[in-house]
Amino acid sequence: MREPGIRPKVAGLALGVFWGGTLFLWTLISAMTGYSREFLMLLSSVYPGYEITLAGSVIGLVYGSLDGFVTGYVFAWIYVTLAQRI
Fold first, then answer.
1. Domain extents in the chain
2. Of 52, 60, 72, 81, whose Cβ has the fewest other Cβ atoms within 10 Å?
3. Which pLDDT score, from 0 to 100, does residue 86 have?
4. Three-state SS annotation for the chain
């Protein structure tokens, strides 16, 4: 049987880099301009210690990378598991 092309670790790494980087840049832009401040403040209830500051952007980078990795890994693992059974 041929193994599906998605690898969970690679998918997790890709999504982790994407979400961590996006959250980092988005927070920096918001800290400088005030753009999307209300939406980003919602994330402080999900990510403890996160705030719209320079330090908060680094915290967001760490949380976003971990969150993205776990989400990408689990999604790809479910996909591979289902693809092997169907």
1. 8-85
2. 81
3. 85
4. CCCCCCCHHHHHHHHHHHHHHHHHHHHHHHHHHCCCHHHHHHHCCCCCCCCCCHHHHHHHHHHHHHHHHHHHHHHHHHHHHHHHHC
Task: Decide if 30 contacts 42 (C-beta within 8 A).
Answer: no
Closest CA to 23 of 61, 68, 62: 61
CA distances from 66 to 20, 34, 40 (A): 8, 26, 18
CA distance 59 to 49: 7
Report the alpha-carbon distance of residue 19 to residue 82 in Å, rounded: 25
> Which tens digit of pLDDT belongs to each residue from 7-59?
999 999 999 999 999 999 999 999 999 898 888 999 989 999 999 999 999 99
